[in-house]
Amino acid sequence: MTHYRGGKYFYGDTHGRDPFLLLNKTKMNSDRNITDIYQGCVEYDIENSTIISIWPKNKTSIDIVKLRESITDIGLNDPIFTKGNYQEERMIVDAKEFFDKVYYWKETCFYNGPDGYWYGFGTKYNKLIRMKISKKDYSTTVDEWSLNDISLYKLGDYKDQDTSYCERRAYSCIKDGYLYAIGAGNDDNLLYKININNPVDISKFDLEYDIQRTTYSGEYMYLFNWGDYILGHKFSINKNDEIICRDDKTEYEGRSIPYLMSTPLQLGPLMLGYGGYENSFYKLLFLHTPYLGTINNLSSPILKTADKTMKITYTLTEEV
């Protein structure tokens, strides 16, 4: 049927601990050339068994890499993890104009857009800098938007490629064409929702001050998509943009996903992602906890017609 924790909690349950269950953690090659690709993953091409990654290479360019990776299938000769021999394409894209405009080139974040583009965002004072990258020809445009009196916390953070291990943090995410980002300074109890193609379309959400506290959270993904929800430290946002705050009594308790650094991929009730800790690197498989599986015990299908009344009864039994 399902794991015993499958229906234990719900995203909107302010008392529930976890909206996920870590099912499997497989250790992978920790070579920086490979871990950067996995942890910088922004998009999955399931049909072609490919992941697409974006990683700031230096102060002037970004790497866009398409890497062969078995996502929903595996062949007899496929390794459990790639060692680089399945790399399909690497494109170095000029990002100097974008990086010159942001406060710090590594404190940016790249995302998969819903409209045939990848997006990079960064900030400088009260300005939001956008880099728009075509998936067709890798052409780019850079825009600088004034946010007036709005201050945003850094949107992401990438570790230099000359360091011994990979690390990526995301303090923001894109959902349904909007950038969700955390406020900074006097706005550190606010969350902003900004249209990625229309900067005057901005909404803000008030959060309890002790709920926000992103720097107390131990995870790498501080704000991320999870099913129909956006999860943050001690709060959730449902599909109607309603804020659900947790009432944990402990200041440091939050809703975190261990090790995850890449954009997660939803596969039915499962979520796939990549990440690690220092020199350890893992492929991660999670289960949505508000999930109940069922099986069909009927010997043949029942056809519901207008002249019939159908009643389905479920018997749920708690096993200790």
Please mark out the parts with pLDDT under 50 across 5 or more consecutive residues, or reply none.
249-254
Structural class determined from secondary elements:
mainly beta
Please state roughly what percent of the residues sit in beta strands, choosing from under 5%, 5-15%, 15-25%, 25-35%, 35-45% or over 45%. Answer: 35-45%
* Rough outline: globular
Average residue pLDDT:
80
End-to-end separation = 16 Å
| Helix residue percentage | under 10%
Rg over CA atoms: 21 Å
Described by strand count, sense and barrel closure, the largest sheet is: 4 strands, antiparallel
Spell out the helices and strands N to C.
EHEEEEHEEEEEEEEEEHEEEEEEE
Helical stretch tally? 3
How do the strands of the widest beta sheet line up side by side? Answer: 1-22-21-20
- How many distinct beta strands? 22
